[in-house]
Amino acid sequence: MAGHYRVAMQRLAIITCLLAVSGPALAQTDPAPAAPDKSAFTLLNPTPRDLWRPMSADRPDVTESPKTVDAGAVQLEMSFFEYLRDSDNTDAEKTNTLLLAFSNVKLGLLNNVDLQLVFALYERQETRPDAGTATVNEGFSDVIVRVKINFWGNDQGDTALGILPFIKIPTGTSVSNGHVGAGIALPFSWDITDKVGLGVMPELDLVYNETTGTHDIGLLFSTVLGFEVYGPVAGYVEYVGIALFNGADDYESLLSFGGTYEITPNAVLDAGARIGLNRRANDLAVFTGITLRF
Predict the structure, then answer these.
(1) Tens digits of residue pLDDT in 271-281
(2) Which of 117, 133, 248, 281 is most solvent-facing, going by the fewest CB within 10 Å?
(3) Is residue 36 part of a domain?
(4) Number of continuous H segments (helices) and E segments (strands) in the chain
(5) Count of domains forming the chain
């Protein structure tokens, strides 16, 4: 496990150094005309719709977008359903999770700041041991409150960088662990061409450990390659690595892939899947949803 930690931390250090050293320079290489000044727009003085930037969503991949919702705009990113299947190392216990209307509701506060609420209207967890009766928990999920701040690239440039702190608030339902969690992510994107883009995101998490009754530090690292397939159809391929610094072999490795279909500039359908590449990761996740901007 120590090797996984070193690799994860090396990746985080490399990405952070590259962003710090080369990011601003890359952001200044775009020869496009200057974008309109939208700094005066706020929630109470909304950005006119004809000045809205192209819609950028945090779904369907794990890697978040560094771009925010325009001031005064509302964006709903929702899964119609998500299904996750997992088994432990011995295959003695299997867990099936169903999420309905798993949503991220965004509200633009400033030109470079938005507020986000993440929750599932319905979550069902079924844990089935190899022998015995299955345990079922269901209800409204915990709520995650996030604030995204964009440093550059919201309206112009080939690169963009943001920061995304968040806190998980327990709701007390049977699917909640009853404990507060928190974290911070650093999403970065680079439009390599007008049809191909790269995203990377290191994320630090404070996660409650039900076995020890304490909070563990976790590190998530993801990188995604997005590409236009044809017209309104686009696809992505993504790697996700998750490590918990708790002294156990808890490194998770996943491959994610999927696609999107743009109905209008303010409505996009998506579908995708994640596959576990090792025994610690969830075996399978499949999902489909929509992003709408108002």
Answers:
(1) 999 999 998 89
(2) 133
(3) no
(4) 1, 14
(5) 1
